Amino acid sequence: AVTSSLRKMADCLKVANIGLIQKVLKALLHEKIPIKDLLTILETISDIAEITKNLSIIVEQVRARLSRAITKLYKDENGVLKLLTFNAGTEQKLLDALRERDGVRDLILNIGQINTLVQVTSDEAAKLLHKGIAPVVLIVDPLLRKSLSDIFEKFGLEVVVLSHAEIDSNSKFEVMGTIEIEKL
After folding, report:
1. What confidence score (pLDDT) does residue 1 get?
2. How would you classify residue 34: left for phi > 0, otherwise alpha for psi between -120 and 50, otherwise beta?
3. Pairing relation of β-strands 80-86 and 172-179?
4. Which terminus of the chain, N or C, has fewer Cβ atoms within 10 Å?
């Protein structure tokens, strides 16, 4: 296993420098994603860094490949992932608010829209916490995950934001609530 890891590291260093690899690992750890599966992480960095050196894109791809481990983190004792979602209209409004700049997608919302988003999400999260469901997991379109996660972190909202790509396709899940924001 060690020689395999070393080979993967050597392959990875052909397309990504140590600094980029460190930034990917730091980003994963910042969002409490385990980095035990270094082989998968290095393989993914190798694959994606040939196409782009954009940290956000690489991190999202690594997270998608770690879907089994990520899903396992948030399953309950019965092996069920309990989720919040946005209704289709709200998610579409958020997708429409995405803008790309220098290869990075940002969610462009004014402060009123951000406050509404945080407040409505916080209210729904509180309902789940009241039922004893913790942590609260919100599943969203992969294009929205990072922006929403950043917004919630800035406002101290303890909601785990996962993309559809990060949910293991073999896992059982249950939607516990749907967030609808009329005016966004």
Report:
1. 65
2. beta
3. parallel
4. N
